[in-house]
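Long-time lurker, first post. I've been practising inverse folding by hand and with some scripts of my own, and I keep getting stuck on stretches where the structure tokens seem ambiguous. Below is the full token string for one chain I'm working on. Before anyone asks, I'm not after the true native sequence, just a reasonable design that respects the backbone. If someone could post their per-position residues I'd love to compare against what I wrote down in my notebook.
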């Protein structure tokens, strides 16, 4: 079959002598055999199916990018100086058996997530939208999200991506962070966000909505100017307006920049969501 190298776990070392006899008996060239340390789980035990090792499809469903997973796996037990990030071409060019460590590597999900977050931040926004579209058939309720990703919604998703990907470590977190884009009205509001929507805050949002109706053109810069001017005239800190506004627009206390959220949602949708929470006629 043309196999030149056999690289496998150290638990197969005892098989090598018997297999060499088989190669010799058949008159075949004996491949180079390298036996490398095993990968252990977080508790130090051998990583195996019984231990909870997962197939590639499971890592896909958890929202890991293929490039990030390859990069993480190549660094398990192998190193090239202090370099942590490798392109596929660098992996092929630099990998060499003598640089494999002698100690067992430990699979660390936190490190994998951090590395995946790096790849998300450095991946072009359009590629991330495409990756999420490819992921949706493999996750719960993915079909419902896919049904909402028409051309208009994908354009909004793409516009929101710069702010979304700064916080996300997996594609699932990206999807969750973007869920306010396609959420049905009236928007579900979590408990922390609901606590911000006091009677006083709702009154502020009522008046703010009237001023936002006059913003022209509708951009993040235009919205920011209007909101800051409104807060200054009312004699309140920007956060006293921006945080309830975020709760009304996204249903959460965290999101991309609130002015970017206004721009991405558009005037009509933004004012309608404010009206839902502030009890203003939309």
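-- Answer (accepted) --
I ran through it position by position. Result:
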């Amino acid at each position: 079959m043309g196999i030149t190298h056999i690289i496998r776990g150290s638990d197969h070392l005892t098989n090598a002598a018997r297999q060499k006899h088989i190669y010799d008996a058949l008159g075949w060239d004996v491949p180079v055999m390298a036996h490398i340390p095993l990968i252990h789980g977080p508790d130090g035990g051998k990583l195996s199916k019984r231990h909870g090792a997962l197939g590639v499809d499971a890592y896909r469903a958890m929202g890991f990018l293929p490039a990030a997973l390859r990069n993480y796996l190549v660094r398990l037990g192998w190193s090239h100086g202090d370099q942590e990030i490798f392109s596929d071409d660098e992996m092929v060019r630099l990998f060499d058996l003598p640089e494999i460590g002698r100690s067992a590597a430990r699979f660390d999900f936190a490190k994998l997530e951090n590395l995946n977050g790096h790849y998300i931040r450095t991946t072009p926004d359009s590629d991330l939208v495409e990756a999420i579209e490819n992921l949706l058939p493999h996750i719960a309720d993915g079909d419902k999200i896919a049904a909402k990703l028409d051309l208009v919604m994908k354009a909004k998703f793409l516009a929101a991506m710069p702010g979304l990907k700064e916080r996300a470590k997996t594609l699932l977190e990206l999807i969750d962070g973007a869920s306010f884009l396609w959420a049905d009205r009236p928007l579900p509001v979590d408990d922390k966000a609901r606590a911000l929507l006091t009677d006083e805050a709702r009154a502020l949002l009522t008046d703010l909505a009237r001023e936002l109706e006059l913003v022209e053109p509708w951009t993040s810069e235009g919205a920011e100017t209007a909101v800051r001017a409104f807060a200054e005239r009312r004699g309140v800190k920007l956060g006293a307006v921006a945080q309830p506004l975020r709760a009304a627009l996204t249903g959460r206390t965290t999101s991309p920049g609130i002015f970017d959220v206004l721009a991405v949602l558009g005037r009509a949708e933004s004012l309608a969501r404010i009206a839902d929470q502030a009890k203003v006629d939309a």
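A couple of notes from the structure itself: The longest strand covers residues 5-9. Strands lie at 5-9, 32-36, 39-40, 105-106. Happy to go over any region you disagree with.
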